[in-house]
Structure formats: structure tokens, C-alpha cells
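Record type: monomer structure entry
Structure origin: computed from sequence
Chain ID: A
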Amino acid sequence: MAPSDSRARWEQRLIETTEPWNGWGMSRVRDRIVVRLRERGRPAESVTLPRPLTWDEAHHREAIRWIERLYRAWDDGSLTLKAALKEISAQSDKIGEEHTLTWAQIADALEASRVQQSEKCSADTFRKNWRPFIDHAVQLINTGKVHDGYTLLKTALENWEGSPTMKVECGRYLALFMQFAVSRHNAPRTWLISGFDKDELIAKPPKPKLKAVLTDPELLHLIELADSVNPRWGNVFRLLTQFGLRPIELQHLSSRTNPVTGKPAIWCNYQKTGGEEETDPRYLEAMYIRDANDLPMVWPLEQAMADGTLLLPTGRNGDFRKLSGSAVNTYIHRKSRSTGKPSGAVQNYWAELVEQYASKDPREWLRPYSFRDSYSIRCHQEGVPVASICDAMGHSEAVHNRSYRTMTLGMRTRDFAAETSLMALP
């Protein structure tokens, strides 16, 4: 097919691809690209490029690369066109005729695999953790600017410049995405992202932040302030403090009778199935907090929930609101629209605590999850066996030792304190 001046430039470039090669040409059949070969003394041959390589501007650059690879694989007649096409299909960065899923569809299939089939994570976790990286990768692939796993990762990382932790997460999620595409949907192996690729492109992540743990007086003062403004939020902080909950578990609580004690207990039916910290539904265990007189105390939260008198925050419609880490974080950091400063006594005190812990050496990171770490510290401080702590918190001992605070400087100093006599120095 000879190029015409009336054709679009992209179409002329496509047609001109085969012009230097004797006997080669191409034609359009509906929306498909058909490559033809006519040589003297040999039967005419033709092959149709696989979808999604169609005769349009969006795919013409990739089609040109396919045709050039086809020519090299043909190798002056050592292979037929069909054999050459089969060979490059196994190496190509397109899915191929018999596997016509788009990358967006493969991303959806991965979500179904993780959420529904293997139940590795919840739909919400996939949306928050996986989707930002995967959707960005699909966009990059669809531009035609990346053609293998290495260049995909290298280009994708530019979106997270200045955020070392996000770069590590990007490498992890994209590597799993490409592995799924190759193993389940026959994407070419060139899309795989190797450990070597990640080592080269991603700097070593920074040392994890030291998580702050609140002292008993700080927890009690925070709850006191919350009670003075909205006792319902005071109850939220009581639950987080007394049971070491993940904030999301606030929406998974109900009253049951403890089968051992026969007394009212709080049952948490939250079941985390993904990541390092898997957990099963469990009875919660109250860990006391010490008052100003150093006496252990608990709130009767189990009985209040059993009696239906445990009041929690409501929405504008009067129904109990859905509590989560986001809801707690929003409340505790709420700011005035007019001044941009913390909006109340609770928020002011929390801001003071954030600044106080951030100014420590080493710097400590205070966040709503700190209620959970504070529970862990109190348990260790009071001598609760590690196995019991982990079972009550709903995670393994390995996760506990790796991810949670188990020691403070005060506890260490206490453990080494002793009545001693001084020996003279020479």
C-alpha cells in the first residue's frame, strides 16, 4: 500500500514501515493490520497483527514496533510469517490475540483475586493501598511510553519523588501486579519486575518512625477533656485506651457473655486477612490504667455495652456514625474554618502532645494508633505474659515484636534500678 498525502501523518508512518523491505507490505482489513509478503518463487504469505494492535493512531507506534520485530524474526525467510509472529508474541509487551484483556481488566482481575478468591485483603484495603499504584501503572502502559517491567517501575517512581516509603510500596505492588499478569494472563515475561530492578531503582527506605505511647495521666486528661465537650467521644477514647483497639475495630464491637467468667464481655468480630498482621475475631481484654494515686482502674464498658447505655458519636441523622481510623483522626485534628487552628480543648491538647513528642530525641510520632501501642506498653509494664498480650490484641508474637512498642526508657530504667553502694574510684 503506497502512502498518500491525504493520509494522516501517523498512518503514513505506519505504512512506510515495510517500504525498505523487498516484497513486504501491509493493508487494512476493517480495523485490523494485515502484513503481507510476496517473494518471487515463494507462496504469498500474510498475518494479522493481534488485538489490541488495530489500525488507529492510538496503537500505531506499538504496531510499528511489532512489525519491525516480525521482520527481524522472519530473518530473510528462515521462518514463515506465521512462525515469526508466534515467536515474537511470546516476547511482546502486548497480551496477544488469544488473551485480549486490557491492562485495566487485568487490574480488575487482580482485585477480584485478592479480595474475593483468596481473601488476602478487603475491598477497602485494595482501593486504598493497591489502586493508586496500579491505576497509575495502567495509565503509563496505555501511553505506549513503557514497554517492560523495568521501564514501568522507573517511570512510575517519578510520581512518588520525595516520598521514600511510597516508592517502596510502589515497587512492591507493581511487582505483584506484573507477576499476576504474567502468571495468570500470559503477559510477556519482560513485564516482570525483579528484585534486582527494585534494588537499583529504589533507595533503602528510611528507618521507621518511633511511635509515641501516651502515659496514663495523658490518657486520663484527654478523656476528661473529651467528656467536657462530648462524652460520646470520651467513650471512644475509653474503648481505644482500655482494649488497645485498632480504630477500625470500633465498628465491629458487640456484647457477649464471656464463656469463662460468665460476665458481660465485648466481642470484636473484625477479621483482618491481609498483610503481616492477620487477626481473628476475639473477646477483648481490659488493661487497667493507673490513676493519680497509682491505683489500677477500669471503666465498666462491657456492662454499659450489654445494657445499651454506652453512648457513641452519632451523625447528623442521629444514627451512630461509622467509626474508623479516618473518623478518629478527623475528630482529633479538627480545625476551625475561620482561624485554621485546633477547634476545641481536645484538639488543642492533642496538638500539644504531637508537638511534645515530636520534639523528643529521638523524635516520636503520635497518631490515633498510639492508643494501641500505649495498651501494649501498659501490658508489658504490668507483667502480662507476651502470649496473652498478643492474643488479646489479635496478632502474632512475630508481628507484635516487629511492629509494636514493648519498651520505654522509663521501663528500662525501672528494671535496672537497685539500691546500691558506691565503690571508690582510684
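Annotation 1: Residues 150 and 196 are 10 Å apart (CA to CA).
Annotation 2: Strands lie at 24-29, 32-37, 45-48, 210-211, 253-257, 264-268, 282-283, 289-290, 296-297, 364-365.
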